[in-house]
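We emphasize that the prediction below concerns an isolated chain of 236 residues; any contacts that depend on oligomerization or on bound cofactors are therefore not represented. The input was used exactly as deposited, without trimming of termini.
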Amino acid sequence: MPDELQQINAGVERQVNIVINNLLYQPQTTADLLTWLHQQFPFTRFQISRQVYMGVWDSLLYDDYQLAIGVTGSESLSNNISLLPLGDISWQFVVAQNHPLASHPAAVLTDDMLRRYPAINIEDTSRTLTRRVAWLLSGQKEIKVPDLSTKLACHLSGLGVGFLPERLCRPYVESGALVARSVVNPRQPSPLSIAWKNAGSGKVVSEMAEIFKQKNALVSGFLRMVDRPAEQKKIV
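Result of the prediction step, given as a token string:
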């Protein structure tokens, strides 16, 4: 019996499609994961997609994706989908060091102060579910960019204002390139999870769920911006 047929008979999928939240996406970690998966399951074909906000859920619910890394929330949107909470993304309001708000004398910035400057946002990629807007005040100009790296660059250049993941902007705040400011309406932490389909999934999806449960170093790069539950307990 050919090796490929033996693998299929053993419950290994022919094709596994994985969607990753833009907030967690890391090219090198993705490449490392694909390399490992190929070594473990040489006859399985793999496809990776990067989506934003509800676009991650959209891919899992309505497209042919079996596993999602970084769905929003900590509860499943379907009885056919299992969920494993990863932790929270903490947000920090930041501006460039030369931005007018960086040296504003107010201890806490009001919405009226903020709406004078463009909000830098990444557009939700959902096609079926209701799209979400990360942060935008009434009457405020919005500038949409395709990914987190571009959003960070726009903040650093002083183009606009908004929230960035605290772990992403921390080194820039420490260096002085970005200035963290307190605002009247801070953005609440965003819980993220991995999710996978129960029906039709085989050994590949099960193995991937397991390495996340074990916090395997192979996937640690995806979690560098996440405050994980275990870490939060240590702080308390």
